[in-house]
Amino acid sequence: MLASLIRRRWPLPVIALTVVVVIVAFMLAGSADEQDDLVVYNGRSHYGDEQVFRDFEKAYGVDVVLRGGTGPELYERLRREGDATPADVLVTTDLANLWRAEESGLLEPSTSATLEANVPVALHDPGNHWWALTTRLRVPVVSTKRIAPGEITSYDDLGDPKYKGRTCLRTSNNEYNQSLVADMIAKRGKAATEALLRSWMANDPKVLNSDGEMLAVMAAGDCDIGIANHYYLARALQENPKFPVAPAWPDQDGAGAHANVSGAGVVKGTDQRKAAVALLEYLTSPRAQRAFTDSGEFAISPSAPAPEGLADWAEVKVDPIAVAQAGPLLGEATALMLSVGWN
Amino acid sequence: MELTTARTPAPPAAAAPRRARVSGWVVASGAIAIVMVAPLLALPASFFRGGVGFDTLARLLLPDALRTSLLLAGGVGIGTLLVGGGLAVLISFYDFPGRKWLDWALVLPMAMPGYVLVFVVLGLFDVDSPLQSSLFGSFHIPGIRTTFGGICILTAVLYPYVYVLGRSAFLGQSRQTLEAARSLGRSRGGAIRSVALPLARPALAGGVALAVMEALADFGTVNLLGIRALTNAIYRVWNGAFDEASALQLATVLLTLTLALITIERLLRGRARYNQSLARGDAVEPQPLRGWKRWLAPVAPCLLLAVVFVIPVAQLVAWSLETIREGTTVPNLRDAVWNTVFLGVITAAIAPVIAIVLVYGMRLHGSRTNRVFTRLSTVGYAIPGTVIAVAVYVPLVWLDRRFVDFADSAFDASIDLIFTGSILGLVFAYLVRFNALSFMSTDARMQHVDPRLDDAARSLGADRARVLADVHLPLLRPGLIAGALLVLVEVMKELPATALLRPLGRDTLAITVWEATKDSRLDAAALPALLIVLIGLVPVIVLVRLLRAEGWTSAADQFG
User: What pLDDT does A10 receive?
Assistant: First the structure.
């Protein structure tokens, strides 16, 4: 075909351009979305709760298009799409992601009587840009084989010199850690936080890519103390009750265990506002909440039953993240973590 | 091959008066070169946004990242030289049982990307893995998540570069040279050391340089092992701290490092090309080993091959079968396969078109300008995918915004992001990175086409277009197909640019393996990892067949 075109004296660059244009048009045609669908950017895509969205589709009668990615990926994507975004709802993990989205003006306020009833006041943005879907604790976890129960009682213990070479941390690139440190800066002050982080670093922790990997490394005996979100451990224990790692609830005499949220908000400029709010109402409703707690996270409603097998865990004294103060400190937290050598 | 191009000798077209003008070919190849290189050239501009110098994050990360990258590069250089060079000597100068098949089997580890080997190693290492069918039980490698662990992994998958180039250099050496050294009183080992090795130095250095560049460019291995190399630093600044300027600055450093390495390699090699023209049967005969040495010699290569290739592949097969049986493999595997193939095919369809424009432009107008343009447009192959991704991203986002604003103001329409919202930006990054592959293989064919053939066709009345269509294209076809195949395979294995530029939800096999390994969801990644190795085997098998059919020297020419 190419040969015959060239033989008919079509200049090759023109042919090349045509080929490229055709391919591009083909690709763009494929990427067009139906206008009537509710497009959800879903940062919880690795949590296996897609079924909740399918149930909503049936209940509400709207097609939901899920686009998965990590929190940072979705944020970057939304930011660059601006008003042109096809997204109607952002569902994401961690306050850091919610706060960054709100701060960059990517979310619009939304509220309804149902939302107000479903979500406690402390668990949504005062300006109603986002609503929490679940809460999760980021706590020290310890090897049951090499650490005695009650030996670790605070975040500060990870900096105890006697644990040198025995600790591990997830990379400081991770937003859970960024939120944890930002919250510490907000509550303890920068100098105290820096001293704490330096003591952690002095123990030469292994830096790992994910909470799941951390638990695997701990089970393998390569690390005795780490910091992980509680539901990763809950899932590991669900699969294998003899999994040799246990939570060590921190600061129970003091502030309590760091509690963070996952949440959702309506994307600015959506043309599906009604359906978007309906989705938020559905996700915060007791029925959908059960799906989230099935995977080990805590429901937002204090009256909701604790996740199966985690009744004791739900009794833990928690220290909810200081939303308004910690958010603006995220950048500072990231720089601080890097400057003390937390990679 | 048919050369009967002049079936119907058309009457010569009325001789059009020739005007001196800039050739369309120069314009076309110039445009391609500019589009391909401009993003890279613009990288240093990141140092001048708001003040001059490094941003905070870049300054914090740079010392450690630079040190680690250099350590990694140095370690991999030494490792591949010892392993690849040693094996090349062993196979070239000594004969022992199993030598014939080891000769080509030692190339196989090339098919395995570093991140797949990491996945297998971590999978074996994970004592609580849901995977039951571990061939050797699970065992413990304490130092794997260190720079040294990364050096070992990368050496294991990169030594074939040194082996292949070293092997072909040794085969190109004349027996007489070695015998002359022997007659002057050297032992065989001494003769190899003092004559054969120095003669092969340019080839070995070339292989090491390739391996070191791959090591600098590696993202998957260092990311999964938590090694603080530059590629990893760029990724994290980009994707966790959203600090565009810092990422671009770190990318500039890595780009400089890569270009410096190329320059050093060129300078060191200089004109040193110790080619001897060999008559048939003049090559070095491997000397049969005797006694215990005869049986010891194959042990080391076999062990190596077992550890870095046979066992990992067997393990992947076992895991894949298990996950298929239990249905625990990643749920959207079909999408991942489709995305991988789609991206590969699209890129592999565009790359040969660009290659023809460049190659044919060079043939018609071998001017200096045109040569420079062409050389520039292939520079991407030496540059890490991470660098290319961040470099093309910024201008594409800018273009996207212009298009969106234009559509908004002109038609009051809201359009999707054209480049960064679709796979277009990613395909562009692939083309910048892999254009060299299709260009080289097409150009190699074109070199073999005698210019007199063009003249003959022209004198029979064919115009240039017809010469291209009826004379060159049929002759170039093998080169075009080979180039497209190489591009296809490379794109399907590619991780770093895909990780940064893929549109939401467009996960490829490589991404699936990478993400699952990061999260320790090892059962999800076994089958995708196996598929990647199978894809990677395609060009390696082609190479091995070439080596066996045409002999090492000419095959290595095509490969290098």
Answer: 65
For the entire predicted model, the pTM comes to: 0.86
Q: What are B320-376's pLDDT values in tens digits?
A: 998 888 887 777 888 899 999 999 999 999 999 899 888 888 887 777 877 888 888
B360 CB neighbours in chain A (<8 A) are: 12
A6/B466 touch (CB, cutoff 8 Å), yes or no? yes
Q: Which residues from B are below 8 Å from A335, CB to CB?
A: 56-57, 60
Matching fold, domains B24-42+333-506 and B61-285+296-326? yes
CA distance A116 to chain B (A): 32
Kindly determine whether residue A31 and residue B240, on different chains, have CB atoms separated by under 8 Å: no
φ/ψ (deg, to 5) at B126 = -75, 105
- Give the H/E segment covering residue A318: strand A318-320
- A-B Cβ pairs (cutoff 8 Å, strict): 173
CATH of domain B61-285+296-326: 1.10.3720.10
Q: From chain A, pick out residues whose CB is under 8 angstroms from the CB of B464.
A: none
Q: What angle do CA A26, A30, A31 make, to 5 degrees?
A: 120
Out of A68, A83, A210, closest to residue B505 by CB: A68
- d(CA B398, CA B86) in angstroms, rounded, equals 50
Residue closest to A222 by CA, chosen among A193, A245, A199: A245
Buried-exposed string B438-469: b where 16+ CB fall within 10 A, e elsewhere: bbbbbbbbbeeeeeeebebbeeeebbbbbbbb
Neighbouring CB atoms inside 10 A of A125's CB total 20
What's the CA gap between A76 and B314, in Å, rounded? Answer: 40
For residue A177, what are its two tokens? 């850690």
Q: Which residues of B fall within a CB distance of 8 Å from A173?
A: 236, 239-241
Nearest to B520 among A74, A178, A212 (CB): A212
Q: Of the candidates B524, B538, B541, B512, which has an alpha carbon nearest to the alpha carbon of residue B115?
A: B512
Which positions of chain B have pLDDT values less than 70? Answer: 1-22, 50-51, 126-142, 270-281, 414, 550-560
Which residue is associated with the tokens 């490829």?
Answer: B508
Taking an 8 Å cut-off on Cβ atoms, the answer to whether A210 and B241 are in contact is: no
ipTM topping 0.85: no
Q: Where are the domains of chain B?
A: 24-42+333-506, 61-285+296-326
**pLDDT score of B550:** 63
Rounded Cα distance between B544 and B342, Å, is 27
CA distance B300 to chain A (A): 30
Q: Which CATH architecture has domain B24-42+333-506?
A: Orthogonal Bundle (1.10)
Report which of B350, B341, B301, B333 is spatially closest to residue B109, judged by C-alpha positions. B301
Alpha-carbon separation of residue A14 from A5, B382, B419 (angstroms): 10, 29, 22
- In contact, B348 and B485? CB cutoff 8 Å: yes
Specify the CATH class of A33-135+261-312 in words.
Answer: alpha beta
Residue B269 makes CB contacts below 8 A (sequence gap 6+) with: B202, B205, B206
CB contact under 8 A, A46 and B505: no
Q: Is the dihedral of CA B488, B492, B494, B500 positive or negative?
A: positive
**Assigned CATH topology for domain A136-258+325-339:** D-Maltodextrin-Binding Protein; domain 2 (3.40.190)
Q: How do the domains of chain A map onto residue ranges?
A: 2-32, 33-135+261-312, 136-258+325-339
